[in-house]
Amino acid sequence: MTHATRVLVVDDEAAIHRFLTPALIANDYDVIKAATAAEALKRIAADAPDIVVLDLGLPDMNGKDVISRVREWSDVPIIVLSARDRETEKIEALDRGADDFVNKPFGIGELMARLRAASRHRMQRKGETPNVHVRGLDVDVARRRVSRHGAELKLTPKEFDLLALLARHAGKVVTHRQILSAVWGAAHEHDTQYLRVYVGQVRQKVEEDPSNPSIVLTEPGIGYRLAEPEQG
Amino acid sequence: MGLTDKPRASPEALLARANREGRGRLKIFLGAAPGVGKTYGMLEAARLARQGGTDVVIGLVETHGRKETEQLLEGFDILPRISVPYRGRMVQEFDIDAALERRPDLILVDEYAHTNAPGSRHPKRWQDIEELLAAGIDVWTTLNIQHLESLNDIVQRITRVRVRETIPDTNFDKADEIVLVDLPPDELLKRLAEGKVYVQDTAARAVDNFFRTNNLVALRELALRRAAERIDSDLLERMQGEGVEGPWAAGERILVCIGPDETSSMVVRHAKRLADLIGAPLLAVTVERPFARLSATARRRVADAMRLAESLGADEVKTLVGADLVHELLRYAKFENVTQIVVGRSRGGWITELLGRSLPHQLLRAAEDIAINVVTPVTPRRPRTARFVPRLTLSRERGLAFLWSALSVTVAILVGRLMTAAVSLPNVSMIFLLAVFFSAIRFGIWPAVFASLLSFLSYNFFFIAPFYNFTVAQPHELLALFIFLGVAVLSSAVAGQAREQAAAAVDRARATRRLFEFARRLSSLAEPQMVAEGTVAEVHRDLGLPAVILFPRDDDLAVIAAWPPEDELDTASMTAARWAYERDEPAGSGTGTLPNVSWYFFPLRASHGRVGVIGLGNESRDEAPLDSEARALFETLAELTATALERSKLSREIAVAKSAAETEKVRNTFLASISHDFRTPLASILGAATSLIEYRSKLPEAARLDLLEQVKDEAEQLDGMVRNLLAMTRVEAGALELRRDWLDVREALDRVVAVAKRRGATQRFSVQTQDQMPYISADQTLLDQALTNVVGNAMRYAGPDAVIALEARFKEGEASIAITDDGPGIAPDVLPHMFEKFMRGKNPTSVAGVADGGEGAGLGLAIAKGIVDAHGGTIAATSPVSGGHGARVTIRLPIEE
């Protein structure tokens, strides 16, 4: 590692900065602070952070617009902080290019896990990582193979596409719309009932206990997430 | 098609059958005279019914001490009677409430035509029985034929005994079953002789007249005939009900014309008998002439006859309005396809009779193919008609009228003299004619007659040879006298009528105008209470009677408004009012229900049902009921009121719904801002605590301490918010209790600044107070909270580098505390709403953690205002303060309560 991962925290509440800064430093992150959208845009351009933690409720600009503006010229991973009851806001933020979200209030561990997933994904983008290991499940995306505890599982092509998409973003949320347009095509963006059926089928095959899934996780109202993979 | 269709049941028959369903069945044991064994027969039948498993109760049975009858009573459940005081002694009456409560399948109540003691719920027992039937209880009762209304005068003629207790024919006709209890007259007389027949005390003196063989024979025939008619009509109804084609197409329709004569009731009864005889429907009308004024007695006679027609089961009872009696009658008759008209003979005096101008004459002339039945009264005692001959009463006004008449004649003499002096006139009498005419038109008939006589004499004296004496030289000179008299009578009559019509028209216009104004006034009243008050005042003014309005409240009626003021009615009146409300029909004085109470109650009906009851006081019960004009006015007022009440009720409901919607909106805004503002401190606490738990070892000592501090600070802030929320709730509920104490303003300001600094305020503060500040009487905790909120607001919106000045001074018994900042100021559109709930300014620069205690929820200043208000003070904001920026909140508090 040449330098510590640099995190930009954008929030207008000083209290958030107050506890986030020491926690991030303790986890070997470099911390940059911003209180407004304008300041955030300036920091992203000037300091090139590796990850952005963005509060959606900024006083000067809508957080979603900040994402759109950033995405015009940067693919820096963005983790959104938002209230639990603001599903549509979160979905829109994700659809506009945010990488993940954390509900406020949150435990610090949850945010750290999201940060890890985001930085890993950032590295994966540089060199394709075809293998994902999570809770005894192996997904070999390049060779289109899935096995559990070494035993190969038979998945239909669509089931595999679905699982592979989640695996590629392992640890990160993928919205319903993103899955539908990637697996079924843009025309089916709103057919979430398809998705439910297929996710159910996939869970039947990959989960130890399909009624209490631990691999393909549901983000209620937003999308699905593959559990954070084990390192290695 | 249709040829093979079974004839369908007539709708009327089906309707009659449907109406009976759910209703109790009435069986009448009918007899020709007392003593034929009706009660005995009824009890025997009841025993059988009881053996058959029916729940039979004796409501009231008169045994009159007869052993056989008493024996039959054994084993029956007998309802106790109720004691009612009547003329100083207790009278035993049927207890209808007990009967309704007991709810048997079948109840026996003797003597259908009995009159209840005054003060009972209904004046007549048949009305009690009506109520039992309506409640779904079967009733058996007994009846003697002479008590039937339509036979009343026949019986009277036969027996020469006046029967006062009658029941309406409709009730008899509606009875589900009639059982004729027959006993031949000889046998009855034998029983009478043996003392087995009980005769009421009051009728004792008439016994000899009543119980005569030929009387009994006639009565028996009446009873048998009536029972037979019943069988006929039962059969008819069944045939119609089953859709059998029958021979009843006849289509005779009888119209009875009710006038203000004494005989009108008799005419109605006659018409009823005629109608029954030929099985024709009976219509009853009275014609009201718009400008005619009837005396109170005449009005009552019309009303009585109308009521009688109704109780005899007339199919229609109607009041027509029109100037031309004959025309109106015939128009209605043609419209209703009437085939026979029944009228009384007397209408108008012997002159009209002679001239062929009486009603029957005119009808006979004008009616085409309608038969006219003229009923001749038995005792033609007709009140003298007083239309053309007003009573001669001497009053001052009258005296003046005669004086004026004399004067006018004097003027005529003078003018006549002058004219004869100038030119020679063949006949000067024309001038006197003017004088007579003037008197007639101006003063009416008697002054006019006086003027004619005077004119005749003067004319004779001054203008006819021989002059200056009263000798009538030639007979034709007398002609002048007759002409004068004729002019006097005719023109005074015409003028009188015109005057009366004009007066009536003015009355009417005034009434219409008043009604209009009343309606307009009502429409401007928002509260039901005010509508009710307006109405009772209006009714009292228009009708001169006390008025009261009751509304339903807590399952009962309550007096809402009354004029003259009254806030309670006696129990009997309340019962009548409830009756009127529940049954949706008039009750009380002048009606068939509880007529002994001093109020007449009328339900207030609007399009969505009843809204209340209006009552009209009527202390003298014998007074004539409202004439049709007053009644129409009253009913119009009631209708207007009901509509206004309904409207005001609806508008109130709308207002409530609207305010509920607004409350809902406010609540949503509130929840949104509360959840936002709670979330930040919660996020900080959770974040700091989890950081400590997970990375305790990785964190330097200083960072750990800071995280712990943060948990404490944020918890304090949450506490402040919760406290503010509670305070707000208390302010809202008006439950803010002040614990006043004498407190030093300077200290309070210092305290507030210290709290702000402790919570990490970065702003600079300055506190200034006048020297020798008196203490003020205030609740320390609450006032601190108000000041903290105001200061917190300034910190939040003025920015982290602001200077905040707190100043206090005294002036005229008031403490004035000003909190001024040098921030960007308050937007002009926000300024007027500063102290409203959920009002939040925009603050683009606020990053600092401000311990403002709920300001974010937009509650802080609202609470401050609530607290200051509770202290009897004021709070106001101004901005900008100087140089286009800055804001100042000024709190003024009275030093003492």
UniProtKB/TrEMBL annotation, chain A:
Q: InterPro entries, per this entry?
A: CheY-like_superfamily, OmpR/PhoB-type_DNA-bd, Sig_transdc_resp-reg_receiver, WalR-like, WH-like_DNA-bd_sf
Q: Which residues carry this modification: 4-aspartylphosphate?
A: 55
Q: Which GO terms describe its biological process?
A: positive regulation of DNA-templated transcription
TM ranges = none
Q: Where in the cell is it found?
A: Cytoplasm
Q: Which residue spans adopt a coiled-coil conformation according to this UniProt entry? A: none
Which UniProt key words apply to this protein? Answer: Cytoplasm, DNA-binding, Phosphoprotein, Transcription, Transcription regulation, Two-component regulatory system
In this protein, which residues make up the domain named OmpR/PhoB-type?
A: 129-228
Provide GO CC annotations from the record: cytosol; protein-DNA complex
Q: Which residue intervals define the domain Response regulatory in the entry?
A: 6-119
The Swiss-Prot or TrEMBL record annotates one GO molecular function as: phosphorelay response regulator activity
At the top level, the lineage of the source is Bacteria
Which sections of the sequence are annotated for DNA binding? Answer: 129-228
Record-linked PROSITE patterns: OMPR_PHOB, RESPONSE_REGULATORY
* Entry protein name: Response regulator
Species this protein is from: Microvirga alba
TrEMBL record, chain B:
Note whether Nucleotide-binding occurs among the keywords: yes
What are its GO cellular component terms? Answer: cytoplasm; plasma membrane
Localization per Swiss-Prot or TrEMBL:
Membrane
Q: Name one GO molecular function term.
A: phosphorelay sensor kinase activity
SMART domains hit by this protein: HATPase_c, HisKA
Protein name stated in the entry: histidine kinase
Q: What class of enzyme is it?
A: transferase
Q: Does the keyword Manganese apply?
A: no
Bilayer disposition of the protein: Multi-pass membrane protein
Q: Specify one Pfam family.
A: HATPase_c
Histidine kinase domain ranges (all copies)? 673-897
Highest taxon, organism lineage:
Bacteria
Provide the alphabetized UniProt keywords: ATP-binding, Kinase, Membrane, Nucleotide-binding, Phosphoprotein, Transferase, Transmembrane, Transmembrane helix, Two-component regulatory system
SUPFAM superfamilies xref list: Adenine nucleotide alpha hydrolases-like, ATPase domain of HSP90 chaperone/DNA topoisomerase II/histidine kinase, GAF domain-like, Homodimeric domain of signal transducing histidine kinase, P-loop containing nucleoside triphosphate hydrolases
Concerning InterPro entries, the annotation shows: GAF, GAF-like_dom_sf, HATPase_C_sf, HATPase_dom, His_kinase_dom, HisK_dim/P_dom, HisK_dim/P_sf, Histidine_kinase_KdpD
Read off the lineage from the record: Bacteria, Pseudomonadati, Pseudomonadota, Alphaproteobacteria, Hyphomicrobiales
Q: What are its E.C. numbers?
A: 2.7.13.3
TM regions (residue ranges): 400-419, 431-457, 478-498
Recorded catalytic reaction(s): these are: ATP + protein L-histidine = ADP + protein N-phospho-L-histidine
